[in-house]
Write a structure and sequence with these properties.
Organism: Paenalkalicoccus suaedae
Pfam family, one: AAA_31
CATH topology of the largest domain: Rossmann fold
CATH class of the largest domain: Alpha Beta
Protein name: AAA family ATPase
Radius of gyration: 23 Å
GO biological process, one term: negative regulation of cell division
Structural class: alpha/beta
InterPro entries: AAA_dom, CheY-like_superfamily, P-loop_NTPase, ParA/MinD_ATPase
CATH superfamily of the largest domain: P-loop containing nucleotide triphosphate hydrolases
CATH architecture of the largest domain: 3-Layer(aba) Sandwich
Helix content: 40-55%
Strand order of the largest sheet: 8-9-7-10-6-11-12-13
Largest sheet: 8 strands, mixed
């Protein structure tokens, strides 16, 4: 299970650094300035929010701004003033507890273990019934530097299976702006696409996204399709992609991104916003060489891969040039999934624009779909 996460928001260097010392091995902790708080929370909603401010009024404003848009399990205020009115404003804004700095730091330190246990117990209970918290959505990017690796098919199948096997809200976004492609796998035809969201980027919210969605009729998977428009692709900015993904993250439990093979502003921004990057690799020398070039580019762009990048091996068979042990000796990052080569089973569905996995209880699945379903079920546990 992912460790619990405490975010400290403070513009006061001394208070922020002292709050960081509250960290324990049981949870992850991060310190950001007020102006960076929303960006950080969009990436990952904390289990505990600690706002450290030497002014109760401004602290209350910070808490109110965050609490109005995000469902955070526990909010703590750390302040200097022993002021009844200030305490009242902070509690009204959404704080669960108020501690004075520095005299009550020890009390807060002793409170945290019990608080962490309570939050963890609540999250484990929610996981048992496969219920997911709004505002804590995970973003997974599927990418490959080599065409023909099966990135679109795997990302679509992953999203479809995730939707069928859980109660989660799942959104699939096709970021192949120029040519699209995802719609052909499910036989979708639509005049609605990502392009319809560009004019409303400044006020973009869940309602705007809902108005341009398409749906896979069997699983009810939500899909944002590509406009298949080279001119629109030129107009897309880093801000648009970032705002789209962050808005989607707040409304969905999982956001699955199908990225183009080339590195552009959309691809780079999507990777920066992602919790995981699944690199689709086929077990052959050209794919390995391409990934080595991609990795060099990642270094140049300072794209973080540790604990984020994992491989999906596609088209795996006994006749492959490289086996799993060969690949493990060549690759630095873990192999999350192996999908067998199943030309007949996959092609029979692709040719008629049907998903490989149509229902939760379906038994006659192509081999590739069985591999994905097995992995998704393990992932959801």
């Amino acid at each position: 299970m992912e460790p619990l996460y405490m975010l400290i928001v403070s513009d006061d260097i001394e208070m922020g650094q002292e709050a960081l010392k509250l960290s324990e091995e049981a949870f992850a902790v991060n310190l950001v300035a007020k102006k960076e708080a929303i960006v950080e929370i969009d990436k990952r909603t904390p289990d505990i929010l600690l706002v450290a401010d030497n002014q109760a009024v401004s602290g209350a404003e910070t808490i109110q701004t965050i609490a109005s848009d995000y469902n955070i399990p526990y909010i703590i205020f750390l302040g200097l003033e022993e002021d009844f009115n200030g305490l009242r404003d902070v509690i009204r804004a959404g704080a669960d507890e108020y501690y004075l700095y520095p005299q009550e730091l020890d009390s807060l330190r002793h409170k945290l273990p019990a608080l962490l246990t309570t939050i963890q117990s609540q999250e484990e209970s929610a996981s048992t019934i496969q219920a997911f918290k709004r505002g804590k959505g995970k973003v997974f990017s599927f990418f490959s530097g080599k065409g023909g690796s099966g990135t679109t098919l795997l990302s679509l199948s992953f999203a479809q299976t995730l939707k069928l096997e859980s109660t989660a809200r799942v959104l699939f976004i096709d970021l192949n702006m120029q040519y699209g492609g995802a719609e052909t796998f499910f036989g979708l035809e639509s005049n609605r696409s990502l392009a319809d969201l560009l004019p409303v980027v400044d006020e973009l919210n869940e309602t705007h996204i809902q108005h341009v969605l398409e749906y896979e009729k069997r699983s009810k998977l939500d899909m944002l399709l590509s406009p298949c428009d080279a001119e629109f692709a030129e107009e897309v900015t880093e801000r648009f992609i970032s705002k789209l993904i962050r808005t989607a993250r707040r409304s969905y439990d999982f956001v699955i991104l199908d990225l183009p093979h080339g590195m552009n502003v959309s691809t780079y921004t999507a990777m920066e916003e992602s919790d995981k990057i699944y690199y689709v690799l086929t077990p052959d020398t050209p794919s390995i060489r391409t990934f080595q070039r991609v990795e060099n580019l990642f270094d140049q762009l300072s794209i973080k891969r540790e604990e984020r990048l994992e491989f999906f091996l596609n088209k795996v068979s006994r006749d492959n040039e490289l086996n799993k042990s060969d690949l493990q000796s060549l690759l630095t990052y873990p192999i999350a999934l192996e999908v067998r080569l199943d030309v007949k089973g996959v092609q029979s569905h692709v040719n008629v624009s049907e998903p490989m996995h149509k229902s939760q209880e379906e038994k006659k699945l192509p081999g590739a779909a069985k591999d994905i379903r097995k992995w998704v079920r393990a992932f959801l546990k």
